[in-house]
Amino acid sequence: MRTSPVLSLVACLFVAGGCSSSDDGSTGDSTSDSSSTGSTGSTGSGGASPQCGADPTYHLHAGLVSYTTFAPVVGARATLDACPEQTFVSDESGNFDIDIAANQGFDPRIEADGFITTRSGQSSLQADLDAGASPFFPTSVESFFPDLTPTSPAVLVLSALGPGVQPDPNDPCTDRSGITYAVVDHPEAIVTYYSGTSMQPVLDPTLTSTTHLGSAEIGGLAETPGPDVELVAEKPGCEISFVSYPHLGKYRLENGVLTMAGAFMPPIPPP
User: Which positions ≥6 away from 195 have C-beta within 8 Å?
Assistant: First the structure.
């Protein structure tokens, strides 16, 4: 199974690529133990895990931990637009194991009691993926996302360094500050960047680009019926994109739901 710091179900936001509480902008690779799941390859699941879509499938292993306590989130409920009649539930370790049809787009929506309901945009698998353990935001930190209300959606965006990329003071493309975000064909979108620390982010409307956190909240948008919203990230001289394996760079907005989006620098190619 391919192991990646790319977090497919919920992007690991405020923290680059992994799930530590470090504020140094390093690329972590905090992945969950998948030894009990094995690899389904491209020949189908054979009933080993719940399946979304027809054979052939690839296996997704992903976990959730509380953003504030780092404890596993047990009993979280995930639905995928590719198989909306099914509900996948995180186990006693906070993990999901799902066999998903190869090259099929799927948009995870995750909810749990006491946590902010979250979407993460369209992804598609071309190989088995261990997506690691991703922070899930409890309702106690709703103040981090003032644009999120029962009648409006919000997008939380992050830039992360690609796998194996380490911060280099001589290479600005390994520094997550100075990045700007925009929403394609939505000039009404309001982008507000975060300063502060990974555990205490602060929205600062005076900022015009990211700080070392690489993060921003986007508001001012309306609910959309499908994954048709696209974002762009720019930093002069750097290659950065929301289209980065396994993410397809398309997002659905839902009132009262936090949509998470990650741009990678450089983008991660398919396997």
Answer: 201, 202, 204, 207, 211, 213
Confidence of residue 1 (pLDDT cuts 50, 70, 90): low
Q: Return d(Cα 159, Cα 215) in angstroms, integer.
A: 7
> What are the tens digits of pLDDT across the range 155-178?
999 999 888 899 999 999 999 999
Which residues are within 8 A (CB) of 157 and not within 5 positions of it... i.e. 6 or more apart?
13, 181, 215, 216, 217, 218, 231, 233, 260, 261, 262, 263
For strands 95-101 and 2-3, give the pairing.
Answer: unpaired
Sign of CA dihedral 168, 169, 173, 177: positive
- Does the N-terminal peptide bond of residue 246 adopt cis geometry, omega within 30 degrees of 0? yes
The residue among 88, 73, 81 whose CA lies nearest residue 32 is: 73
Q: Which residues contact 242 (CB under 8 A, 6 or more apart)?
A: 121, 230, 231, 232, 233, 249, 261, 262, 263
